[in-house]
Specification:
With 159 residues, the chain is mainly beta. The chain has a single domain, classed as Cupredoxins -  blue copper proteins (Immunoglobulin-like). The protein has one helix and 14 strands; from the N terminus they run ββββββββββββαββ. The protein is globular. The chain binds copper (II) ion (CU).
């Protein structure tokens, strides 16, 4: 369970590849980690509420991230960081990649990528500033970067 592939991009200057998710980094960046050890902008994942739970499912020959649409309403939600729980409920390895397609080339873009073994769960912490100022529009896309045919979904933000 300990081996995790990370591709997490931080804010303006830092790109950390292969670093342990257990370490907290500076403010302004997405963090991928475990519930017990992970943190984002100085707040431990344990102290945050989970905003959405997403599952990699295999239905016969169909691979999908469920649900296909996830809505976070910032008008009724406190300003704490967003916490997503991603779980692989299938019997094979799958990826979870959350990003903003419209600004994917920008260094500040929200970009969280993790590979989940069968049965594995990871948590993704996102500072709300990343969603409000580094994301154009109101949607982020999530999909599996390991399987092109693996159906992804949309994170819809009501700002
Ligand atoms: Cu997949």
């Amino acid at each position: 369970m300990g081996k995790t592939m990370l591709g997490v991009f931080f804010g303006l200057v830092m790109v950390v590849a292969g670093a342990s998710a257990a370490f907290a980094h500076q403010a302004g960046g997405v963090e991928v980690g475990d519930l017990e050890t992970g943190s984002v902008v100085g707040q431990s994942f344990k102290e945050l509420d989970v905003d959405a739970e997403l599952y990699a499912l295999e239905l016969g020959s169909i691979k999908t991230w469920y649900p296909p649409v996830t809505v976070i309403d910032f008008k009724v939600r406190p300003g704490r960081p967003v916490l997503l729980k991603v779980t692989n409920n299938s019997s094979t390895e799958h990826g979870f990649w959350l990003t903003d397609n419209t600004t994917q080339a920008a260094p500040t873009v929200v970009n969280a990528k993790v590979v989940l073994k069968p049965g594995e769960t990871k948590f993704i912490g996102i500072p709300t500033s990343d969603l409000f100022y580094a994301t154009q529009g109101n949607t982020l896309k999530y999909r599996c970067h390991l399987h092109p045919a693996h159906v992804g979904g949309t994170l819809l933000m009501i700002k």
